[in-house]
Design brief:
Helix content is 14%, strand content 35%. By secondary structure, the protein is α+β, with helices and mostly antiparallel strands.
Amino acid sequence: MIISILYEDNHLLVVEKPVNLPVQGDDSGDDDLLTLLKADLKKRHQKPGNVYLGLVHRLDRPVGGVLVFAKTSKAASRLSDVLRKREMERAYLAVVRGSLGDAGQLEHYLWKDTKKNKVHAVDASHPDAKKAILHYETIDRKDGMSLLAIRLHTGRSHQIRVQMATSGAPLYGDQKYGQHVNRPGQQIALWAHTLSFPHPTTKEILTFTSNPPAEHPWHIWERVGAGSLVK
């Protein structure tokens, strides 16, 4: 499997995660991104012994796009701190069924059923509820679908997928939260488009972008793939 490297130095490794590849090993026993990247680093840099690569954040298995890893424990610690302080900006592109407003902010309280690996929007009084906030902007509408730019203010599990479905605009291809409008085999239309954060040592603000493939339903919008859509 070919994994595109967007940036690499002594502290960071930024890649474009392929769709349908888990970020780390799970019960499926399938190949995972973290293990593949460690093997690649070991081979390319001829490193003896184990290779360190810190997992800073995640993307759901069916989702592709920009992901950063830390090549040192110090970088991992600093990037985790950046994430905790909400100084890491994460922007996504999504195609949803139906339509929302031109722009807006969604706030929900989410609870994850760990046994079923499914997240639910619940009342704020739920003992395990976590507040989830995102901002969306509608780029265009066509064929009963909408192309959205989304920025996360919190990083909850399955957040975008659940908040969109709860708001009546499930993601195209989402089999878990939009099974009533999507057919089996459709690829979820959610892409980690832009990632921006301060470098762990130089503090320079780094910004990386990745565009979704020119496949259905992305190809409906010719501008997708031609450049950055998220302002």
